[in-house]
Amino acid sequence: MFQVLPIMWRAVRPSRIADMPAQVNTFWLRKGYEGLTFFGRILTPTQELADSFNSGPSSLKTHEMIHLRQAQACGDSWLRFYLLYIWYWLRALPMNRRMKHGAYLLNPFEIEAYRRMYDTGYLSRCQEGGAQEWRRYARMSLEERLALFKGKVNSE
């Protein structure tokens, strides 16, 4: 746990980060998760995953880098990003009764990251003002997000 304190202490504004290095931290990751954006770093449960994140572009790396762009869009503040993330997660918590990991998967930040993680040009297109698509998902009801998740709505 104490490994994360130096990361938080040395954190810089999201706009000052060009790439996020990955490092192993088993304390913060739940079973089944491969990466977690944490104040400009990617935390992983294994060294193999950290090495794969650090070796070059991948859809998983893009997913985590989208969270960096989202933090840039949140007033260039990690604190605001995490507070909003937790707020949206808490609001979607009742959805856990209807689907496994519903609060996580219906979080507007995660919807954007999952929908765009295979789009190789997305990070460069949203470099200036950060990733903003999450704002549209945040305005949707939980039922609309659930329909979007299940593929019943085309948001493009």
Approximately how much beta-strand content do the residues carry? 5-15%
Shape category: globular
Compute the number of helices. 9
Could you estimate the helical fraction of the residues in percent? 40-55%
Average pLDDT, rounded to a whole number, is 91
Q: Kindly, what is the distance between the CA atoms of the first and last residues, rounded to a whole number of angstroms?
A: 40 Å
- Counting DSSP E segments of at least 2 residues, the number of strands comes to 3
**Topology as a string of helices (H) and strands (E):** HEEEHHHHHHHH
Task: Indicate the radius of gyration in whole angstroms.
Answer: 15 Å
The stretches of 5 or more residues where confidence is low (pLDDT under 50) are none
Which structural category fits the helices and strands? mainly alpha
Largest sheet: 3 strands, mixed
The strand order across the widest sheet is: 1-3-2
Task: Quickly list its features.
9 helices; 3 strands; mainly alpha; single chain; 3-stranded mixed sheet; 6% strand; 156 residues
